[in-house]
Amino acid sequence: MIIKENSSASNFEVIAEGLYPAVCVTVAGIGIQETPWGNREKVILTFELPTCRREWEKDGEKHEGAAHLS
Q1: Which of 15, 33, 36, 58 has its CA 20 to 30 A from that of 4?
Q2: 9-46 pLDDT tens trace
Q3: Beta-bridge partners for 67
Q4: For the chain, where are the alpha helices, taking DSSP H only?
Q5: What is the DSSP string of 39-66?
Q6: Rounded-to-integer distance, Cα 36 and Cα 11, Å
Q7: How far, CA to CA in Å, does 45 sit from each of 24, 53, 62, 66?
């Protein structure tokens, strides 16, 4: 598995390196994608880290929830 940092999510707070309990909340097939090794079937995995709580503001309202990792 190749895992890379998502540059479009660069405005999110980085979580400290370590081991965390995680729950896989999304498995999304994105079809065949061109890679350096030829065309490959790819998926996006998103995990929720319930022990890492984050606060954010959207549309003037404050929210709190578990951190997510894609």
Answers
A1: 58
A2: 556 677 788 888 889 999 999 999 998 999 999 998 88
A3: 49
A4: none
A5: EEEEEEEEEEEEEEEEEEEETTEEEEEE
A6: 28
A7: 7, 20, 26, 16
* Residue burial 14-41, b: 16+ Cβ < 10 Å; e: rest: eeeeeeeebeeeeeeeeeeeeeeeeeee
| Cα distances (angstroms) measured from residue 31 to each of 46, 64, 67 | 17, 33, 27
User: Is the pLDDT score of 7 beyond 60?
Assistant: no
Q: Scanning the structure block, which residue is given the tokens 């890679």?
A: 35
Q: What is the pTM of this model?
A: 0.60
